[in-house]
Amino acid sequence: QVQLVESGGGLAQPGGSLGLSCPASGFPFSSYAMSWARQAPGKGLEWVSGIYSDGSDTYYADSVKGRFTISRDNAKNTLYLQMNSLKPEDTALYYCAKAPWSTVITDPLEYDYWGQGTQVTVSS
Fold first, then answer.
1. Using an 8 Å Cβ cutoff, are 35 and 99 in contact?
2. How far apart are CA 97 and CA 5, in angstroms?
3. What is the chain's mean pLDDT, rounded?
4. d(Cα 119, Cα 50) in Å, to the nearest integer?
């Protein structure tokens, strides 16, 4: 079955960096777009970034553009998110999600499989 397992979350200071990973299994990883989304305490699910199945194009929410970088290694079936210049408002539970097709969609409700999430806390 499809499995997505996020890791790499933790505590960072404002201005600091964290890197998230999401190894995937149970489906042909290189055939599907992938995204990261997050949910802050008391708020709804927010799409953060997405990448085409072949890695040829990436997309970012305005709130993270210029600070976060999404990437994928199709040989290792793994999705990544490098987060730099972190802000307290980046504090959230971060999820990786599989799209039902090869191109990026920004509506989290359209994704068909999700990981369990990894907590990112930005605080001094």
1. yes
2. 10
3. 96
4. 19
